[in-house]
Each structure stands twice: as C-alpha cells, then as structure tokens.
Amino acid sequence: MPRTQVLASDADNQAVAGWHENPITQEQQYRAAAYGMLAALLRSAPDKMLMNQVSGFSEVDDGGDEMTVSMSLLGLAAENCPEPAIAAEFHDLFIGLGRGELLPYGSYYLTGFLMEKPLGDLRDDLDRLGFEREADVHEPEDHIAALCEVMVMLIQEDCSTAIQQDFFTKHIDSWGQQFFADLAVAKNAVFYRAVARFAAAFIDLEKRYLADG
C-alpha cells in the first residue's frame, strides 16, 4: 500500500508524543519524536499543545553535550516566548508578504531556485519508497518539514539503516545544516533560534548515528 506524504497531518504530533505504529525500539522512538517535533515546528506556527510538549525539554538534565544543552534551551524558549509572538515570528520567517525571510526548500538551498533538479530527484526517491503526494497538498515535497515527516515514517516502519541514511544524506544533510545556520541568525528569529540550535545538534547526531549503523 503506497504511503502518503503530507505537509498537514497528525503524524508529527504523534511522534512528538512518542506514538509509533510498529514495535520499534525506544531509541528509534526518540529519533522519530525529534523529527516529528521539528516537522511540527517548521510546518506551521505551533499550537498550545505542542508548546507545552516542547517546554518539557527545560527539565532535561544538562549533560554538557550540545544535544542536551540545545534541548534544555529550546524548552526554556518555549516556556518564555508568548504563543502570539511565536505565531508572528513564524509568519515573518517563513510566509511574509510575498515570501518570508527564509525559504525552507532543498531545491532553493542546493541550486538557488525553487522547483529545480533536487526536487525531481527527491520525487523519484519518494516514488521508489512508495510515497504518494496527497492531491490537495500544493507545497513542494522538499520543504524541510515534509522531509522530517518522511524520516518519521521510515523510522516507524523500521526501514533499514541503509535506506534511512540514503534519504537523510541526499535530502536533509545536503542542505539542512546551512538552513538551520541561517535560521539561527535570521533577523526575525527569537524562539526559532532555539529551534535552529536543537535542529543543528540533532542533524549532527543523526549523521554520526546513521554512519555507525
């Protein structure tokens, strides 16, 4: 049965909550939850439920490594940034009047233009993996939130490390760190600076994890 790729679904929220369809290990649940949280934060302005979940990170024991530090700071940012301010920030960063400050698309970061060859390559890979695009979704598939959603599903379906690494390397690691570096210094970013730091730390951890797998 073909999978369906969407940009507006409950898949990421379920992952944040630790939900999984198949019996995967706790380590894999954590990975899926991290991708799901990033998808939720980067697809639309977060709602109160999501912010409450993210604020729980403030209680993470700071082990001194970048991953735990970034989680703790993200939780503190969620606790202290008002929801309306975050919604306005999201609009300025990613929507704007005509366009936002940043364009979170792989094709743009890899070529300088939207809807270029990297998007075609991604669509070929999604087709091989059995993903179908929903008819009412108009956002290009190379949006960073959509790519995180794909990783959630690959993890939850317990796809091989080789499959996960290939998708991650080609479609996220190839431009994601630069995107999050830009987000970290964007003039309209306040809460999303903490999101960027967490995402950068997570991508670095994922790169090492998948290489060792």
Provide an overview of this structure.
By secondary structure, the chain is mainly alpha-helical. The chain has one domain: Orthogonal Bundle (TorD-like), CATH 1.10.3480.10. The protein is 64% helix and 3% strand.
Task: Give the neighbour order of strands across the main sheet.
Answer: 1-2
* Oligomeric form: single chain
Structural class assignment:
mainly alpha
Count of DSSP H/I helices? 11
Low-confidence stretches: 6-21
Mean pLDDT: 90
Largest sheet: 2 strands, parallel
How many β-strands, per DSSP? 2
Overall radius of gyration = 16 Å
The shape, in one word, is globular
CATH superfamily: TorD-like
CATH fold description: TorD-like
Give the distance, in angstroms, between the N- and C-terminal Cα atoms. 27 Å
Order of helices and strands: EHHHHHHHEHHHH
CATH class, named Mainly Alpha
| Helix content estimate | 55-70%
Which architecture would the CATH scheme give at its second level?
Orthogonal Bundle
Summarize the topology.
Layout lengths: L2 E3 L5 H6 L9 H18 L4 H8 L10 H15 L2 H12 L11 H6 L5 H13 L1 E3 L10 H13 L4 H13 L2 H10 L5 H22 L1
Parallel strand pairs: 1-2
Helix pairs in contact: 2-8, 2-11, 3-4, 4-11, 8-9, 9-11, 10-11
Give a quick set of tags describing it.
two-stranded parallel ribbon, 2 strands, single chain, 213 residues, mainly alpha
Task: Provide a brief overview of the structure.
The chain has eleven helices and two strands, in the order E-H-H-H-H-H-H-H-E-H-H-H-H.
